[in-house]
Specification:
Blueprint (H helix, E strand, L loop, with lengths): L14 H4 L10 H6 L7 E2 L10 E6 L22 E6 L1 E10 H35 L25 H12 L8 E4 L1 H8 L20 E5 L2 E5 L4 E5 L2 E9 L4 E15 L6 E14 L5 E7 L3
Parallel strand pairs: 1-10, 5-7
Antiparallel strand pairs: 2-3, 4-11, 5-9, 6-7, 8-9, 9-12, 10-11
Length: about 300
């Protein structure tokens, strides 16, 4: 096996920075401190380590009942399933390090790579989930009477949009808005809004989830850099995501695997590699509504 030109060696500029530093070994904790999206949907492990390239996920909806007439048999309606197809994909990365560098900073580099590996898993999961959520067919919400062609610099995210998405979901199978994930630049307009209450500032003993900045109308508000931006009416807008009942399913296929292996003896290198496999799919389109606004400031 040939040596990659991108392997990390002791002459690399950044090597001088990592050698004297002892990194925290609690790299796995990074996942729970930084993930936002996965906990807001449904995680189903039925396909973990079992065969199959895709899974037909069935979920039920409430049936309708009709008035019965005495002496007339109960009418029979057809029975079927509502399903979505979850497709599994693999994600991973690898880093190569010279044995000369390992001789000087092995323990530091190993923990540093592990931290980065777990961090990349967290970021990748949120990115994949956010991308899937933007595929919703539900009509989105804009501030006030704005549309994609009339949005202005005054079209910022406000508590009126939060109230509107809440009442919109209550009219559908979504039932109730469970969370809203916004872009950091949408956060400002909420924090200066007198109607918005930041629970963490007022001594709440409630556990604040990663990225959560507070709540309004009982709806937790989270912040994530994975919220997508777009250009509408010559302005940069941000696509916040509101989530209702069973908005999406996250299905792990192969658990996160981390490998640290030595290449051939003559290469004098060690390769750290990691990968996992999972699938993400929207379950109820009415449980995913996009809130479009410009940034704050």
């Amino acid at each position: 096996m040939s040596i990659s030109q991108n392997y990390f060696n002791s002459s690399t500029t950044s090597a001088g920075y990592v050698n004297p530093i002892v990194w925290s070994p609690e790299s796995e904790k990074y996942i729970y401190e930084n993930s936002v999206f996965q906990a807001l949907g449904k995680t189903d492990g039925r396909q973990l380590n079992v065969p199959g390239k895709q899974y037909n996920f069935n979920f039920g909806a409430a049936y309708s009942m009709s008035l019965l007439t005495e002496g007339v048999e109960t009418p029979v309606s057809s029975y079927d399933y509502t399903q979505v197809v979850v497709t599994f994909k693999g994600y991973g990365d690898a880093k190569q390090i010279s044995k000369e560098e390992l001789a000087m900073g092995f323990s530091y580099i190993l923990s540093d790579i592990q931290l980065g590996a777990f961090g990349s898993m967290t970021e990748n999961r949120d990115s994949v989930i956010a991308t899937e959520l933007l595929n919703t067919s539900t009509t989105g919400i804009y501030p006030g009477t704005s549309t994609s062609s009339t949005v202005t610099t005054a079209s910022v995210l406000d508590t009126n949009m939060v109230a509107k998405v809440e009442t919109t979901m209550e009219q559908s199978q979504a039932k109730k808005c469970g969370a809203i994930v916004i872009h950091p630049l949408q956060k400002y307009s909420l924090l200066v809004n007198n109607n918005f209450i930041d629970a963490s500032k007022y001594g709440s003993d409630r556990v604040i989830h990663s990225g959560e900045i507070g709540e309004y109308l009982g709806i937790p508000i989270y912040v994530s850099n994975h919220i997508t931006s777009a250009t509408e009416n010559s302005l940069t807008v941000y696509k916040a995501v509101a989530l209702g009942r069973d908005p999406f399913v996250f299905m792990p296929k192969r658990n996160f695997e981390f490998n640290f292996e030595e290449e051939t003896k003559r290469d004098r290198t060690v390769t750290a590699s990691w990968w996992e496999m999972f699938g993400v799919k929207i379950l109820r389109n009415e449980s995913v509504i996009i809130l479009t606004s410009v940034g704050g400031y």
